[in-house]
Amino acid sequence: MLTIHNATSLNDLLIIEKLSQEIFHEHYDTYMDEDHVDFFLQKYMSIHALSQQVEEGYLHYLLKSGETPIGFLSLLPSPTKMLLSKLYVHQQYRGLKIGKKALDFTINLAQSKALKVLELIVNQNNHRGINFYKREGFNIEKAVRHHFENGHSEDDYLMRLEL
Q1: Which residues have CB under 8 Å from 30's CB, separation 6+?
Q2: Residue 152's CATH number
Q3: Does 25 have pLDDT greater than 90?
Q4: Is residue 68 within 8 Å of residue 18, measured between CB atoms?
Q5: Which domain holds residue 33?
Q6: Greater confidence, 75 or 37?
């Protein structure tokens, strides 16, 4: 049974950091340089980065099957919309509707805050993710290119769901 646990403690954030190290290379190494994945993990998924995100208003959640952490979710609410910053599920738990349940949780949370829009950024090479979000009603708003200080760039889509 899936539970979604508000990740507020240092231990929770350490679990998210560990999960991201397991998930990101397995997922992203198929279409990104390994060096860039390592850079991304350090810049955005280290305990320091996650703690800073909390200070900036991000909400982190652990996805658990029983007591086993199997993924995580990060959200950034603003006055008019919710940003779905991260939604990752461990490889062995994909295909079990975990992502759908996490997305439903996110939509319900946004609606409870009277927010009208849910947005996310997804890499253009993440075909599985793009197809999932399209099935759930998201539309591609525009293509965006992100440049990073390590010299890499990523071609992404901004996707949006009207709530």
Answers
A1: none
A2: 3.40.630.30
A3: no
A4: no
A5: 2-162
A6: 75
